[in-house]
TrEMBL record:
Gene Ontology cellular-component terms listed: ATP-binding cassette (ABC) transporter complex
A Gene Ontology biological process term: response to antibiotic
Organism per entry: Actinokineospora iranica
Name of this chain's protein: Transport permease protein
Keyword Electron transport in record: no
UniProtKB keywords: Antibiotic resistance, Cell membrane, Membrane, Transmembrane, Transmembrane helix, Transport
Length: 284
């Protein structure tokens, strides 16, 4: 009886392993969106971070609007709550930096990022997914704060287009600041990442025009506050919303809408590549 020679089939590995992507913007966006949905699914199962973010925004509006509002002065004599709300919208975008750093650090500590790095996906996708997910959370938080602002007497008197532009500038700043949080979460491991981010948040927030007009500060301090990226976004949105307290003689104040775009773009150009470089340099 003749035995047929056995055909040797080369081992190509498991059939369900996807091919390694060739890279590029498309892969980064597709993989990033997948990881964005992962973060949203986690929030659905554990809504505590979302609830805390929403409650924090409401409490800080009520605290500054009612507890401290009577002691605040708006340069042109306008209503302080109308002056406050655009600055408050802007300031809460900064307070999301610590949340982003904490989420990145948690994924590092649990080994989640190491597993992602072993998969055939874009190097930037993990980071893009985190930044976009936090942007979506911030959009929900901002919507709640707008509603609270309307309840406490704030009103936007600009056109619908100006209102949309103001919201866009606020979220653009949040997206740029997300990359600051991502970078801090990658390079400052453990509790120091969150502590470092939160330590930066309050001085940067208070040294701006978010809560008080820079004209009421000492001259040298007002110059520093005017050049704070938060001040540009707060001033630009006050202008677009039609709220009081926009005035200022500094060039950066007179061109606040322009600078509200320039500052976030500059932050993205610096911290996006830094974050990708730090991610690739993680020890596997």
């Amino acid at each position: 009886m003749t035995t047929m020679p056995e055909t040797v089939v080369p081992d190509t590995g498991p059939a369900d392993v996807p091919p390694v992507p060739s890279g590029g913007v498309r892969w980064a966006l597709v993989d990033g969106w997948t990881l964005t949905r992962r973060a949203v699914a986690h929030w659905v199962r554990d809504p505590a971070p979302v609830v805390f973010s929403l409650v924090f925004g409401v409490l800080i509006v009520l605290m500054f609007g009612y507890l401290f509002g009577g002691a605040m002065r708006v340069p042109d004599g306008g209503e302080y709550r109308e002056f406050l709300m655009p600055g408050m919208f802007t300031m809460t975008m900064l307070f999301g930096v610590g949340h982003t750093a904490q989420a990145v650090t948690a994924d590092l500590d649990r080994g989640v990022i190491d597993r992602f790095r072993a998969m055939p996906m874009s190097s930037a996708a993990v980071l893009i997914g985190r930044a976009v997910a936090d942007l979506l959370l911030s959009a929900v938080s901002l919507a709640v704060m707008v509603g609270v602002g309307l309840l406490v007497g704030w009103a936007a008197t600009g056109s619908a287009g100006e209102f949309a532009a103001a919201i866009g500038l606020i979220l653009l700043l949040r997206f740029a600041l997300s990359w600051v949080g991502v970078y801090l979460g990658l390079v400052l491991t453990g509790p120091s990442a969150v502590f470092g981010a939160q330590t930066l948040e309050f001085p940067v927030a208070f040294l701006s025009s978010a809560l008080v007009a820079t004209g009421t500060m000492p001259a040298w301090l007002g110059v520093i506050a005017d050049w704070n990226p938060l001040s540009s976004t707060a001033t630009a949105t006050r202008d677009l919303f039609g709220n009081p307290g926009v005035g200022g003689e500094a060039w950066v104040t007179q061109n606040a809408v322009l600078m509200a775009v320039v500052w976030p773009v500059a932050l993205l150009l610096v911290f996006f590549p830094l974050s990708v470089h730090a991610f690739r340099g993680l020890r596997g």
